[in-house]
Amino acid sequence: MKTAKPLIALLLLSGIIRIDGFSQEVKTNDGLTHIERIKKSKTSIPLNPDDPILEAWAQKRDFSKDPKREPGPINVQRQAGGMAYVGIPTFFKQPIALTPEDLVAGNVDVAIMGAALDMSAGRRGTAFGPNAVRTAEGYVPWGDLAHIYSESVLVNPLKSLSIVDYGDAPVDFLSTEKTIVAVYDQVKEIAETGTAPFIVGGDHSLMYPNVAALAAVHGKGKIGVIHFDAHIDAEPGGAGHYLTHGSPVRLLIEEGHVNGKNFVQIGMRGWVVSEDMVDWMRKHEVRYHFMTEIVARGWEEVMKQTLAEALDGTDKIFISFDLDAFDPAFAPGTGTPEPGGLTPREIFPILRALAIQTDIVGMDLVEVNPLVDSGYQTTALLGQRVMREVLAGMVLRKNGITDPNYRHPKLMDHVGKEK
Predict the structure, then answer these.
(1) CB atoms within 10 A of CB 415
(2) Is residue 87 within 8 Å of residue 52, measured between CB atoms?
(3) Domains in the chain, start-ordered, CATH in brackets?
(4) Which of 210, 307, 366, 408 shows a CA-CA span of 20 to 30 A to 246?
């Protein structure tokens, strides 16, 4: 019965079924109404310990009942390849992995996982982000038909790297606090095998468990973070909560998971920046590049400085990419859009460059909100391309390319040199 709890929870919540005892009276020993109980508890949310689905969201399926198999990635596609709209949705139509043993046996380079958390998003809907990214591709074929190479560098990451879909982290859809523990555990589980976790969200509160988990594996203060965002995300909290989608940076730095000097931010703008917040960043030596600076100095100069800063103190980098770093003309489907942002033409080269010159130990892609995407999958498709560019840079690094500004020579000169 234990393994059926997630399904039971879903059916209960949808009103489709009832189980014995679910309509029982709520057992309380304090003699208080729930309103009185909430008013009495200022720093915690009282929960019903007798609710039969209290922890159902966190229950893992019992893999022991599956047919016996050797560890390794599992290709769930029926065809060897197909058009974008054909096949079982996984990230990039890649095989799936269910356990750490699968990652080790498959010598997996990158495990992409979903984290459908959006309790603190500006506009709810980012919980639908992971599956939107899984299904965002509009025309690029996959598998044996995927003779598709990244523009500018002519590499195909899906052919050169071992990449899997590691499924989704468990999510308590009513609690950020409980969910981030489950996310932390799954990210750490991936990283401990030597595989780089790529986390698709979900709101930006996910940066906190993602980076904290990687710091637990690689060592506190041993990794750097390159943070693309329209917002600083260093608020001291919100409405009494330690963590919201606007506060992960502060927690990560003040708790010592990442050193301020190894935290580089790019693209911030808008009307939510205060002088006090900037002073906090300066105090902790955070490297920041507001759009104000980018416009005044030019993108090329800022990109050079950013690449140098990424190498200052560590060569292990986590990329945290909020889709609102893009101008909403390109990425309208986000929770907190801010006009005046970056363009794909500016961002794609720096993502490749970061992956060429540093060891990418993970990344997250957050704030994809398909429910408010006026372009119908425009933002999710752009998010997918963001991951493709990072993966392309990882392939170039693996192939011995060291120039962060590398472009394939045949794409730079149309005059043939061959005899």
Answers:
(1) 4
(2) no
(3) 2-64 (no CATH), 81-398 (3.40.800.10)
(4) 307
